Amino acid sequence: MTQKILYALLTLFLALMVFFGSKAYMQAKAYENATTSLVTHMSAKKLAEFQLKELAEAFSLGIYKNEKKNKIVKLTRDQQLHKKKSQEYALYFILLLLGILGSYFLLSLRAFTFFGALGAFMTLVFGLITPIMMVTIHKKVEYLGDVVLSFESKGVMGSISKLFENGDVVVAIVILLFSVLVPLLKTLSLLFVSIFMESKFAHGIVKFFKMIGKWSMVDVFVVATFLVYLTANKGDVSRAEVEVGLYFFLAYVIVSMLVSLSADRMLHRYKEA
Asked: Tell me: the pLDDT tens digits for 237-269?
């Protein structure tokens, strides 16, 4: 009876993870869109127009109103709200994921591998579709202020699509294969093993993915992204901002390692028995 309650609770955790992950994704996209709209007002031309309107408002003694100012204030407020909400929902998602990992001490290895693999799969999917980083190239210009020269929000799937569009097919295929397909197949194989532990293929699958697991680039991708973030923030003309998609990726790297160890121990015990 206790096990059934625990299974129901973990199933609820997984359902809530889908809900909060979806919310985090939507808020991250809304933050990306709000930032994109805000950046369009920070070109040299737009800032010059804004300064002229500010002067017109000052000289007209309030008769002329610079409505663009209110629009920028609203966009900034919406932008910060979406950012805060995306981080909150991502935090709820990760707390639920930690709850699933904590079930290791209460479940059998087989049950833990099953629920852990489902949690890892969800985490990876949200990591792939959610923006992971914004990179802005800007420069301080006298009388105008902070002029944005270039802006880009980066996500894994979006970056792969852009590489294909730009003709960098080889690079796109490598990233697609080792940062998307291999981790997805590895996670699904862990799920398969937990369900069909008695199958002859289970041991072969785990052995195969242990062999090719070192070719997975997800953990390398996370480290590389953090390096880009750190180096970009040291520059005078560039600024990088980590988004919640990278947190999903980081969580996936940790969870997938733990679930892989669990599956390995599970099959080892089954073989001994």
From this structure: 567 788 899 899 889 988 988 998 888 888 778
Q: How many other β-carbons are positioned within 10 Å of the β-carbon of residue 259?
A: 29
Q: Are 172 and 164 in contact (CB under 8 A)?
A: yes
pTM: 0.85
Q: Which residues of the chain have pLDDT under 50?
A: none
